[in-house]
Amino acid sequence: METQSTDVTATGSQTMAQNQDTSPVANEQATPEVKMSARDLNLWYGDTQALYDINLDMYNREVTALIGPSGCGKSTFLRCLNRMNDLIPQVRMKGQVSLEGEDIYDSSVDVVQLRTFVGMVFQKPNPFPKSIYENIAYAPRLHGTGTSRSELDDLVESSLKRAGLWNEVADRLDTAGTELSGGQQQRLCIARAIAVNPEVILMDEPASALDPLATATVEELIHELKDNYTIVIVTHNLQQAARVAGYTAFFHMGKVIEFNDTDTLFTNPAEQRTEDYITGRFG
Amino acid sequence: MERRLTGSANNAMIRKRYRREARFKAYTITALFVAFGIIAAFFTDIIGQGHSAFWRTEVQVTLDYNERAERIGRFALAEDMREIVSRGAVRSIPLEIRNNPELAGIQREIWAPAYSRIDQYRKGNEALSPELAAQVERLEREGRIRTTFNWAFFTSGDSKLPELAGIFSAAVGSLMVLAVTLAFAFPIGVMAAIYLEEFAPDNKLTQAIEVNINNLAAVPSIIFGLLGLAVFINTFGVPRSSALVGGLTLGLMTLPIIIISTRAALRSVPDPIRLGGFAMGCSRWQVVRDHVMPLSLPGILTGTIIGLAQAMGETAPLIIVGMIAYIPEAPSSIFESATVLPAQVFTWASEPRKAFVEKTGAGIMVLLAILLTLNATAVLLRRKFERRW
What would the pLDDT profile of A61-76 be if each residue is shown by its tens digit? Predict the structure, then answer.
């Protein structure tokens, strides 16, 4: 099997080409409601193409995991979903990304507005160097969604509760967010994202900088958040994808090789390369 | 058992290696000691020359507000004291009498500053004629001559009489110049740096600007003086010698320093902080205002203080714009003629009289003390507000 690997790549991209004709939708069960979708998405960093013809649907109130080896384009794709790539000067993009059918790259779309609908949590916890309270109250105040002190108090409390951090910090909301432990910081960042009341939360390897215990807490949290939010998570940790995600997309060399519900993808992958990756033959 | 760790075939090579290391270390230590020795010699010399300026000789005299003193103050002194007491102490007597006629005819006992050559004689710097020396001897015995702390050095301006000369007007001038420099260079420098670092696209134009700002920081300061002369005085008609023109000129010089240090401070703010802000739906301005500025402020202030400290020690460009004038009275506005501390030191240093040598040294000591204070403030600010993330 290992000797065949070069051939496998070739046949794989053929299958990929066939996949483009029909949108890759999960089979078997009734098709869930699509929250965000990418159509024929191509992206270049300068002259280097990073994403090739990505077609992917992310379902409402589901966790979609993006897996794949380093440099496969999964984080790049994630950043397309709230236009964080706009901040990188040399990025060029073709194709369409939509949020409930609305093209988010349309010239009339306000990026600031978009990011209140599509929040983001980063790999390394990056709480603002302000108090815990301010970390959460900052964005609502900015967007005018919470103005009075009592409104903000409620929002801070409910966001922290949803992020499962309330019990740990309720009595010290004035301490700096940066003084919390790594796992707490990450949950603070999640609470901060929730406070804006987004519909989609993007997570870029949210647990990769955390110890196993904190990772478990964050994973549990992701599982709970699924009831209210659509979550797209990039992860290097296959067990994590298997634990938290309902759907999984396997990226390789800038292409979506396979997309399916997580159980099927992990137990019965259609593609040789998916199987090679999840069984640890490369990546 | 064969001992492999002690004593081996290439022992000679290892020993040679250690010798080389020891030699190299000796060179570095020597360099350090030479550098330190130079600084120590400099400080010893300055302090040795300057410390005596903080003390002055005073003489107890009786002032007689007689008729002749109404015209010439020196006549208020007994004849034998006219060579001893500074004429600066009595020159205002005619004016005093005119303003307050009741003073006429009275006698007053005061401690008056002595002539600088008496002061220098008592400090062992200058010789006196035998008669005068004998008179000083007599006064010492009678307890009518004393050494006190020279407050006048800090409270009065420049004077042609060394015993009355002080740094006050120069210090006020320096303060005004620095205020103008700060008001001019800080907002422009910080804004320019924010634009270049946070907003500007990375293209040929901004790269060219960046290179030129770095070059500007390396331009000799006297050229900024010429620029100030041409632009501020000749074109815009800013009063020559004023703190305004000096401050603007030094502002031009400080601008690149502030821009460079501000950019460095902004660049040191980790990108995840910015990304976090953007992901929350902040606009670029909100990211800068709420997240980048608070974190980079200590760095910006440090750079600014260091830039100001440099401006404060600058003399050459100020000579070009005429700030080397003789200023006995402290200026009361930035439009009046003024001088600055280093220029005052320069003026005193070019005086031939012995008494000004110690003034020069003392002026340098004050200048150094202020600069060290400024730099220490910069370090403390950085320590205090430096945040880790």
Answer: 999 999 999 889 999 9
B69: pLDDT strictly greater than 90: no
Alpha carbon distance A105, A91 (integer Å): 13
Residues of B in contact with A87 (CB under 8 A): 275, 278
Count other C-beta atoms under 10 Å from residue B334's C-beta: 21
B195: left (phi over 0), alpha (psi -120 to 50) or beta: alpha
CB-based contact A115 B291, cutoff 8 Å: no
**Do A129 and B295 make contact, defined as CB atoms within 8 angstroms?**
yes
- Chain B residue numbers with beta carbons less than 8 Å from the beta carbon of A82 are 279
B168-385: CATH topology is: MetI-like fold (1.10.3720)
Is A142 in Cβ contact with B286 (below 8 Å)? Answer: yes
Local confidence band at A1 (pLDDT 50, 70, 90 cut-offs)? very low
Q: Give chain A's domains with CATH numbers.
A: 61-83+109-278 (3.40.50.300)
| Tokens linked to B323 | 């700030």
Are B335 and B166 in contact by the 8 Å Cβ rule? The answer is no
- pTM given for the model: 0.80
Domain ranges of chain B: 52-93+106-150, 168-385
Chain B residues interacting with chain A (CB cutoff of 8 angstroms): 201-202, 270, 272-273, 275-283, 286, 290-291, 294-295, 387-389
ipTM for the predicted complex comes to: 0.81
